[in-house]
Amino acid sequence: MEHPDPQPAHAERPEDAAQDERLDWFLQRPEPSMPGHDDADPVRTVWQLPRFRLGNRRFTGRVDHALVLVTRKGSYRAFLPPERPTSVRGCVALYEVNTDTHTFRLNVPLPSRDDASEFEATADITWRVIRPDLFVASQERDVPGLVSRRLLPVFRAASRSHPIEDSPAAEEAVRSAVEAASPVGATAGLEVTCFVRLRRDATERSHQARLRTARHDWEAAEPEHRAATLRARFETARLAEKIEFYDAQLARSRTAALALHLAAHPEDTQVVMEHLRTEEAELVKNQLHLIDQALDGKRLEDYQLAEPHQLIAERMAAILHAKETPPAAEPPPSYGELPRKDSPESGT
């Protein structure tokens, strides 16, 4: 007679909704390592075996999961992968247990010596089932909850004797206490490792940050003052040298000032040249106007006009000479004549 396939009594519990709430003294829940994948219960499936229909049907499940058979006498027989039972005779239930490694993070506040302050503890916990029979017999279905209940008293007792200012010593004390305590979850067939980190709470961290900023400002105040004073002194000296230089250039002539401007702004050459030509023409025009006024008014005597007339005559001669005789190349330099020698024919 064929035996009907056994039906699972219950599947893995549905995933709990992720809750993002801060842990306090009365509500401390572990934080799963991957939200949306609640692996708190390693028991994946429970099969109720028919009581009066016993056969040799083989139940394998997933190859990487362990199987635990429960006999009628209440004993447990474990089969670690890849072992599988050859028969289920005399058994009433079969458990499929996940033996993979799981992790979760526990964030809890821990008391310090002063009740007004507390440590913020972060524990990275890794666990796996190494004795499936013991785990099934324990009837535990929330491994993170079990581990948290065992670890929290150890954490609190170790941190309670330390002041909030001594977080490194408190962290070392908590780690030592965890290592010295009995293996967590060993009675339930679990292998658990825990790594704990401690730091001061947010209020203390903010206070320490303010003190560090104030200390840095105090340490930098004197060097910054010296640097600012030296910088101001150099700027004053540089400005004085610049004033002296421009004063000397402007005192020379207007042409020197324009040359200085062109040295700094060569792109203004055309504008400067136009300005110079305009100024020169205006100067000549003004001078001619003054001469015309002097001549028309008959205010100058003849002896006073003798020298200007001479200058005008020289200027006109120079202009006419420049127009009539183009500049020729300069003659080669003359060499000294050699002394003459009398020839024999001269009879001298």
Summary tags:
rod-shaped; disordered N terminus; 348 residues; alpha+beta; single chain; Tetrahydropterin Synthase, Chain A; 5-stranded antiparallel β-sheet; 9 strands
Write a concise synopsis of the structure shown.
With 348 residues, the protein is α+β, with helices and mostly antiparallel strands. Helices cover 43% and strands 18% of the residues.
Architecture blueprint of SSEs:
Layout: E1 8-10, E2 31-32, E3 43-48, E4 65-71, E5 76-79, E6 91-98, E7 102-111, E8 118-129, H1 132-138, H2 143-159, H3 167-180, E9 190-200, H4 202-252, H5 254-264, H6 269-296, H7 302-324
Antiparallel strand pairs: 1-3, 2-7, 3-6, 4-5, 4-6, 7-8, 8-9
Helix pairs in contact: 2-3, 4-5
Radius of gyration: 54 Å
Question: Considering DSSP H and I runs of 4 or more, what fraction of the residues is helical?
Answer: 40-55%
What is the mean pLDDT?
Answer: 76
How many H/I helices? Answer: 7
- CATH arch. level architecture of the domain at 8-200: 2-Layer Sandwich
Shape: rod-shaped
Note poorly predicted spans.
Answer: 1-37, 343-348
What structural category arises from helix and sheet content?
A: alpha+beta
The CATH topology of the domain at 8-200 comes to Tetrahydropterin Synthase, Chain A
The biggest sheet, with number of strands, parallel, antiparallel or mixed sense and barrel status, is: 5 strands, antiparallel
Which superfamily, in CATH terms, is the homologous superfamily of the domain at 8-200? Band 7 domain
Spatially, the strands of the biggest sheet line up as 1-3-6-4-5
Oligomer: single chain
H-E order:
EEEEEEEEHHHEHHHH
Strand content: 15-25%
Number of E strands: 9
